[in-house]
TrEMBL record:
Name of protein: DUF3846 domain-containing protein
Domain of life of the organism encoding this protein: Bacteria
InterPro entries: DUF3846
Native source species: Dysosmobacter welbionis
DUF3846 domain segment(s): 1-99
Amino acid sequence: MKILMVEPGKAPKEKNISGTLDSMQEAVGGTIQAIYPFDEPVALICNDDGKLMNLPMCRSIHEIGDIIFGSFFVCAAPPGHRNFTSLSKEQIERYKERFRFPETFLRIGGDAIFVLRNL
């Protein structure tokens, strides 16, 4: 399965994984959570316990008003399919552009978080 891997402090990169639960958990370093923040049928797969494990903040997802902690990947999630599938070339390019700039996060005054794009 062709995915787009996004890691803290790094530019996104294409990666092939088998698509098994084990391969997805290995990619994010633990149990997985699927998030569907975008209008098209894709899933953002992240570590379900990323915040609790205090993993590094990776990217802000403005569509849901949250930050993903730890590495995550984007894959296709076609309606009516039981499994995630490979991204198309167009989707890979679209999400490479969406996540191309790593972000730096600063905590100021407790819960306030400021996002700085690393250009």
